[in-house]
Design goal:
Length: 169
């Protein structure tokens, strides 16, 4: 299972190679916008996996309820043996950090972390770059292309320019 956070495109932007390697089920924790969820479903189909949206709004989420829903994915709806969540980091996006913290608390040793970004900086890089198989570049690019609403958004567009490398912690 792969947890995407805050915005529905995080799985395609920051952890597509891990999703492909592990055939992960994508769970979007925050992002109740119907357009972007439809884009996520299309991207998941390109990646060859299933997805679901927990449906929590990005605006002022109730973190206790978010944690409850994440926790109840474990052992009830699906068997969770490995979880990918956003890396918590000083200066990182607060919602990424919160989802990463909740995932660490709920899933413990089953949790791995993918790097996203720090505010005002480019993508975070770690010592563990995920090396994709040869055809994964094209698959990731096709998955990212599903997010037309984000590609056309001036603040989001730059994230779609630095797309080909990924890191885990």
């Amino acid at each position: 299972m792969c947890f995407s956070s805050r915005i529905p495109d995080d799985a395609a932007l920051f952890s597509a190679y891990s999703v492909l390697r592990h055939q992960a089920f994508i769970v979007t924790v925050l992002g109740a916008d119907e357009t972007r969820y439809a884009e996520t479903e299309a991207a998941a189909a390109v990646l060859g996996v299933q997805s679901m949206n927990l449906g929590f709004s990005e605006a002022n989420p109730d973190w206790d309820k978010v944690g409850y829903r994440m926790e109840h994915l474990d052992g009830t709806r699906m068997d969770v043996d490995l979880v990918f969540a956003p890396l918590e980091e000083e200066g990182g996006h607060s919602q990424h950090n919160e989802v990463g913290l909740l995932a660490r608390e709920i899933f413990g040793d089953r949790c791995r972390f993918y790097a996203t970004y720090k505010r005002g900086h480019s993508r975070t890089r770690t010592d563990n770059e995920v090396i994709p198989e040869a055809d994964w570049y094209a698959i990731k690019f096709a998955a990212m292309s599903c997010y037309v609403s984000q590609i056309n958004h001036p603040q989001m567009r730059p994230w779609f320019n630095d797309w080909d490398r990924e890191w885990v912690a």
